[in-house]
Structures are given as structure tokens and as C-alpha cells.
Specification:
This protein is of the alpha/beta class and about 375 residues long. The chain has one domain: Aldolase class I (TIM Barrel). The strands form 3 sheets. It has an 8-stranded parallel β-barrel with strand order 5-6-7-8-9-10-11-12, surrounded by 8 helices. The N terminus and C terminus are likely disordered. Helix 2 packs across helix 6, helix 4 packs across helix 5 and helix 5 packs parallel to helix 6. It is about 40% helix and about 15% strand. Keywords: Amino-acid biosynthesis, Aromatic amino acid biosynthesis, Decarboxylase, Lyase, Signal, Tryptophan biosynthesis. This is Indole-3-glycerol phosphate synthase. One of its GO terms (molecular function) is indole-3-glycerol-phosphate synthase activity. Pathway: Amino-acid biosynthesis. InterPro entries: Indole-3-glycerol_P_synth, Indole-3-glycerol_P_synth_dom.
């Protein structure tokens, strides 16, 4: 389906609009009699049905936005750059084997897990976060100070309750920390990307990267989106939910892949194991940690398991906003716990000293 975007003083440009959802989480089902975790039935079918509705809503939203606000000069320039890149050869994706700033931050030595913290106002299954508890301006600095190596903003009002103004605010707050320690953290747009116009808006907002979903974009449109992102010097994280998709993404030139909509460390590991990676290339593996409805911090332990199985980074979203009474459930504490080199066997995500949190990290420091 083609989504035509009219410009005031420019020739009418045709944009490809296709299905794309960044991180639609389908929580695992639990057999309460046996306490066993089960995969939800027909997950792919359910996601496709949801994404079809999301696509229609997003296309309508883009049309309305352009009709009401037009397109400012900066975004027009970025749109022209994208079109020039696509005209050069839209079937070929230029692959840069040198890691970008975001990928470098997310990829540390073996046994080390980095964290991407996602900001959103609307949670998957529990309504909106309390604005007085999670102020965006404060969270931006807290995410940085507690060790997040990437900050995502779900700039979709229907799914995340956020806008591109929020994306720009996070990018600006990080930019202002340039002379501080720790310094700025790259900001990622995890909007439902269905059109290159959104990639141009991402650049204008000051973000450093976008999320693209292979299952929902398809191979041809993913090529276009990757080309568009590279034309504007944006890094791209490609979301996958199967081994086949992971290999396709790598073959298309993706160098950061995120496993989404897959519950459990074992299932996530199956998807990224045994992939064929081009010689000299580094592929950063990101585990999207699904929110759990319980009041515990099982998400932290799952992140540790993913680290031990070879993942480089954990993407955490709804779990940051559990808002428990314990200090260990503060967003910053969750980020710090996930990135700690704690032992899955011996550590507790809520422990602060002794045999629990940090035990393995201390041993690692001794051995270095």
C-alpha cells in the first residue's frame, strides 16, 4: 500500500507504508496448577492481526499529521536525502562494518550485559504510569546515571503514550550532559515505523537510532528503511522473533538484532544461536525482556540468564515501572541490577551486599 505525502513546494513523493511494530509484547501464559510457563497459542497470528490494525491507525495518523502541520524545512531536507539514497539503488543495502556509537556502547566484553531502558507512559497491560512518579526530564538523567547504555522512547501515542516531542526532549537532555560524567546516552526511537517520513522525523528530533521490525516490514521494505536510516546516519536495531528472521536481518546488513515477543532466555537463545555472520562483522544481540505480571523481579534474573547465554544487551520496558515499595524496584535499581555481573545461581536481584548482588562481579574484578 502506498502512502502519498504532499509537500508544499516539492514534487509529490510516494512513500512505501507497510506493517511495522517495534515491541508489541505478548506475555507468556502460566499454568497456575503446575506453575509452568507456556507459550501463547498462535502468537504469530495474534501479532499479525494486531499489527494490521496498528498499521491502519499509523497511516491515518501520518496523513492527519501532515495535513494539520505540514512538513518543516529541516524534515524536507532529510526526506530529499532519503529519496536520493533510494534512487541510487534501492535493492542494495550499504553495509558499514565499522560499529556505530550506539553499537559500540551496547557491545562490551563477553560476560557483560548492557541495558537499553525504554520510556513510555502507557504500559502493555496496566494503563498509564503515574506522571508524578516518573517525570521524563528526571528519568532521562536517572537512566544515564544508573548505567543505561541506550535510552528508547516509544514515540507512539496509542501504544506508548509518547510523542516526538518526548523523543526530542530526551535527546536534548542527553545532549546537555556532554560535559558531565557519565556523558550523553544515545536515544532510540521505538515508534511504530511504517514510513521513511518517520525516519526523517527521528533525525530531526535528535535521536541516534530507530527500531525496525522485519516480520512486519518484510524484506523489501526493511531494505528501504535500512537505506533511509543510513542516509541520515542513524543506526538501526532490527527486531526479529525467529532464527530465520535473525539470519535474514544479518544478510540484509543489520548489525544489531533484538529478539522480541519471545518469553524466556532459552527460547531467545535458540533464535540467535548458529547464525552465519560475515567475516569481520560484529552482530550485537539484544534480548527484549518481557514484563511479568508478578510483583517480583524475575525480569532481572532472565536478563542475567540471557547474558550468560551470549546476549550483549537487555531491552527493558514495562518492568521499569512496577513501582513497588522496595528501593530495588526503582527504575535505576533495576537497570543497575540487570547490568551487574551477578550469578544467576547465587545472587538475588533485590540483594544489596554479601552473597547476593555483586558476588560474581567481585570475583570477576579479582580475576582481571
Amino acid at each position: 500500500m502506498k502512502l502519498s505525502l504532499a509537500y508544499n513546494a516539492l514534487t509529490l513523493l510516494a512513500w512505501s507504508a507497510s506493517v511495522a511494530t517495534a515491541f508489541v509484547s505478548v506475555p507468556p501464559m502460566v499454568d497456575h496448577k503446575s506453575s509452568a510457563t507456556m507459550s501463547p497459542p498462535s502468537t504469530h497470528t495474534a501479532l499479525f492481526a494486531v499489527s494490521a490494525l496498528v498499521r491502519k491507525a499509523k497511516e491515518a495518523e501520518l496523513r492527519n499529521y501532515i495535513q494539520e502541520h505540514g512538513i518543516d524545512d529541516e524534515i524536507k531536507v532529510y526526506c530529499q536525502k532519503i529519496q536520493e539514497a533510494l534512487k541510487a539503488d534501492p535493492s542494495v543495502v550499504k553495509v558499514e562494518e565499522v560499529a556505530g556509537p550506539l553499537q559500540e556502547r551496547l557491545t562490551r566484553r563477553k560476560g557483560t550485559l548492557t541495558v537499553i531502558a525504554e520510556f513510555k507512559r502507557k504500559l502493555f497491560d496496566s494503563g498509564y504510569v503515574k506522571p508524578e512518579d516518573f517525570v521524563p526530564e528526571l528519568l532521562s538523567s536517572e537512566f544515564r546515571e544508573f548505567g543505561a547504555q541506550g535510552i528508547a522512547v516509544l514515540a507512539d501515542e496509542r501504544m506508548g503514550g509518547c510523542t516526538y516531542d518526548d523523543l526530542a526532549m530526551f535527546a536534548e537532555e542527553q545532549r546537555r550532559s556532554k560535559m558531565e560524567v557519565p556523558g550523553p546516552v544515545p536515544v532510540i526511537n521505538s515508534d511504530v515505523i511504517v514510513d521513511e517520513f518517520q525516519i526523517a522525523r527521528t533525525k530531526a528530533a535528535g535521536a541516534a537510532a530507530v527500531v525496525l521490525n522485519l516480520d512486519l516490514l518484510g524484506v523489501d521494505d526493511l531494505k528501504k528503511m535500512l537505506t533511509a536510516a543510513r542516509a541520515l546516519e542513524l543506526e538501526a536495531i532490527v527486531a526479529v522473533s525467529s532464527k530465520e528472521e535473525a539470519q535474514q536481518a544479518i544478510d540484509l546488513g543489520a548489525r544489531m538484532i533484538s529478539v522480541v515477543n519471545v518469553p524466556g532466555a532459552e527460547a531467545k537463545t535458540e533464535i540467535v544461536s548458529g547464525l552465519t555472520i560475515p567475516e569481520g562483522a560484529t552482530v550485537t544481540k539484544i534480548a527484549n525482556i518481557l514484563h511479568r505480571a508478578d510483583k517480583g523481579l524475575g525480569e532481572v534474573e532472565e536478563a542475567w540468564e540471557c547474558r550468560d547465554k551470549g546476549f550483549n544487551c537487555a531491552w527493558v520496558s514495562d518492568a521499569l515501572y512496577k513501582s513497588g515499595n522496595s528501593a530495588s524496584e526503582h527504575p535505576g535499581a533495576i537497570i543497575k541490577s540487570m547490568s551487574a555481573k551477578s550469578s544467576v545461581r547465587w545472587a538475588s536481584p533485590v540483594a544489596k551486599s554479601g552473597r547476593g548482588e555483586g558476588a560474581r562481579e567481585y570475583l570477576g574484578d579479582i580475576l582481571m
